[in-house]
Queue: 3 jobs
Job 1
Amino acid sequence: MALHSHTVLVVEDDPFIRLALAVCLEDEGYLVVEAGNVLEAIAVLGRPGKIDALVTDIDMPGALNGLDLAKLVRGYNNEIAIIVTSGGHVVADSDLPTGGRFLIKPYRMKDVFVVLRDTICTDAANVDFRQAV
């Protein structure tokens, strides 16, 4: 088993997709924190600890969606890698937060791993989200 050197917040309201993604990411050596909606994700981001990457679906229950979450996170932290996914939307790069990437569902887990490797900032310390608020 690989060392858990980076933490990924997975935000997905479908528990089967969330679990499958979390298990695959853990198998690749990531520490995974899960949330079922945007408000749960915001609660996670308010806890102590560092989040290196966010993988979020767009469609979520509640008033906020995954794009709202991605933009909120980017507004407070430029170091977090952001991946937005959707099976029902096609998102242009201009609609994503700076540096954000889009994957259409169904995506291959390999594609998620490649994007994470390409976007996680490994040589700079991430800011604790709570300190940026």
Job 2
Amino acid sequence: MVHFDLSRSLGQCSAIPFAILGLLVVPSVLAAPKPAQANPYDRCTASLIDAGIGLEVATASCAEALHPERVSSCVVDIVAKTAVDPSQALGACSRDRRPDDLATCVNTIYSTLADTSAADALNNCRRSILPVRYSDCVIGVAGAAEISPSESMAICTVAGYRPENVAPTFIYSR
């Protein structure tokens, strides 16, 4: 019987230092001030202002965005790698449902094909439903057929439109 009492008391004695340590450490961790963390809207606004967008336009654009960091990263990527005006890039990125893909499309076409107008690449990528696939089409067609980038963009824009099931799926009767 003594054996069981001794093991219980030793188990309790070994838990006491951890309990004391917990009482000393936990309140100091909870009371420590947390560093200020920027939220996505703050980062978006700061990025757009750094990219050359005016204060009022940057704040309004970030406030309207569902995913503000995607919009700002799109604008920053396009402005950093092309000769597009920041306000044009913001207009395209804020209206696109895939702003990261839009930036990839514009930058890929602009950097791969010589004599490409950055504004044309931006407008055509903005109109595409799948911008990355569109940029692959433009680069592939221009390289294989040895045509100008503007002709390649026009061909790939038209090629993406394939109406299917144009007949009505129901019969209206009175």
Job 3
Amino acid sequence: MNLNIRGEKIEITDSMKEYALDKLKKLEKYLNNSNNITANVLVKLRNHMQKVEITIFLQSLILRSEEEQEDFYAAIDNSIDKLERQIRKNKTRLEAKNRVNKSLSFDYEEEEKEVDQQVVKRKSIEVKPMDEEEAILQLELLGHQFYLYNDIDTGKAAVIYKRKDGNYGIIEAE
């Protein structure tokens, strides 16, 4: 696996690179052609906390995790564990998608019981045209993590969501 690692407000040492690469090798048992796969690692320094964001681009999938800890090495460990849990948790869905793209391998020994997840509820909603401020108000009034609406300015469907830092994000359809 190839590694692109960079830091914002922090210098990345050789030992940090080696540690990240060593931990990323733990995921190679799930990846076919791991020599052709690149993992992007971004390390950000905020006050005394170090935030590690790992993104792995596969043929038609993106594996991503982020973790914030006081210690870089703990953040890497937790982030790799999150990625592994994502793969294990979504094994059935990934296998179905993998029949097409063949970028993941599931020939490993199963350590955990597989939990069969399925869609248990469907809901139809009326998507109303509104601006961002009104969408934020609706989101807060409903107490949800996200809200779907038609952007009055662009006429496109959009989702507004609450971010971990307390701010809002918008995803727009093209």
